[in-house]
Amino acid sequence: MPCLCLALACLFCFLTAADTAMAQKESDILTVVNQSSRDLLNIRFQNKKEISFIRLDMSPGAQEDIENPGIATELRADTGLYLETFAKVPLNAVQRLIFCGEHSACLILEKSGHKPYHQQGQRLSLLPQDGDRPVCNLEQFSPGMSMRDVCALLSPDLPRDDNEALLTGLGFAGMTWAARLSPAHAETDSRQQPAPDGQSLLGHLELRRPLEVKDLQKLFLHLYSQGYTPWQAELPGLDMDFTEMADMNAARHKSLLAQALRHFMEVARGEATVMLAPATMLPALADADTPQADVQLFTVTLRQASRILIVDVAAYPGNPQP
Fold first, then answer.
1. Which of 21, 99, 112, 291 suits 12 as a labelling partner, its CA being 20 to 30 A distant?
2. What are phi and psi of 128, to 5 degrees?
3. Could you tell me if 236 and 256 are in contact, meaning their C-beta atoms sit under 8 angstroms apart?
4. Where are the domains of the chain?
5. pLDDT(20) > 50
6. 227 alpha carbon, distance to own chain's centre
7. What is the pTM of this model?
8. CA–CA separation, 117 vs 85, rounded Å?
């Protein structure tokens, strides 16, 4: 009998320890839910001087499990067009973090066995509005450009994202955009001091604004006026490579793309991507691994779930053939 009691006692201790370990494991996980109508690009956690980021790239309706920092912290969510900041979010007492705001910064904090708690935050628009301070206008992005070449008005206290990109407003194609200026990550001597923001080389540029038919038309008209032409396009159920349509002229290519995009906007589902290149360089680009001359390419993304228009601008240095 004493042996049986001892065995039962050991089994009880084992089960209790297992339950405790399971509860501890669950508390280490934080489920992030995007119930807003916007993309959730990343979250910044700041506790005093300690800052960390988590990259998410979550579309509306998505959720993801991440490691719970387990502290009360200031939280900043990057939605592409807005930065939403929440003070003293008690992550040490939360299992689910739900972003719910439509027209304001809103969080729902959930923990099993407790009532959900709503927390309001502050929202900063990254898209310049009428009457805002002057913004720079993007004219050209070429290899070797510095941040200051793009915009001489860059403020030293601009916010940054998880990739160290500067977040500011830029004018392009007669419209204002929420811009991300990412520095080039070239190999440098570790003994050298980092260049000031304005002198850092620009590696990548991204522009965002709400997706509207009139703005989309305005964007493509501007790119066509600058000598660009469609190269490739991916839409739901349709892929197009315009270099393979040699029997059609450039006007026909643009007409086909316009029809496809018109249908895409009417259906209002899915995602579309269009790459554009200089018309004079397209044949050589299609046949070469690297460009023979400096080139600037545009990739336009239309995302229906979050109703966002994204323009990626990339500049590649030429590599002339001997």
1. 112
2. -60, 140
3. no
4. 28-125, 136-185+196-316
5. no
6. 28
7. 0.85
8. 16
The token duo for 298 is 């545009």
Mean pLDDT for 89-117 is 91
| CB burial string 233-242: b at 16+ within 10 A, e below | bebeeeebeb
Is residue 132 within 8 Å of 146, Cβ to Cβ? no
Tokens of 5: 């009691």
Q: Spell out where 2-133 has E strands.
A: 29-34, 40-47, 50-58, 63-67, 72-78, 82-90, 96-99, 106-110, 117-120, 122-125
pLDDT reported for residue 192: 40
Q: Which candidate, 282, 167, 177, places its Cα nearest to that of 219?
A: 177
Q: What is the pLDDT of residues 161-184, one digit of tens each?
A: 998 999 999 999 999 999 999 988
How much is the pLDDT for 4?
52
Collapse the DSSP code of 175 into the 3-class scheme (helix H, G, I; strand E, B; otherwise coil) and give the result: strand
Task: Give me the sign of the Cα torsion angle 14, 16, 17, 21.
Answer: positive
pLDDT classification of 187: cutoffs 50, 70, 90: very low
Helix (H, G, I), strand (E, B) or coil at 166: strand
Contact 177, 211 (CB under 8 A): no
In angstroms, the CA 165 to CA 158 distance is 10
Give percent of the chain with pLDDT exceeding 90.
Answer: 58
DSSP for residue 115: -
Q: Are 227 and 279 in contact (CB under 8 A)?
A: yes
Q: Would you tell me how many other CB atoms lie within 10 Å of the CB of residue 133?
A: 8
Give me the mean pLDDT over the 69-93 stretch: 94
What are the tokens at 77? 């969510």
Q: Dig out the tokens for 306 from the structure.
A: 């979050």
Joined together, the tokens standing for residue 166 give 């500067």
**CA-based end-to-end distance of the chain:** 92
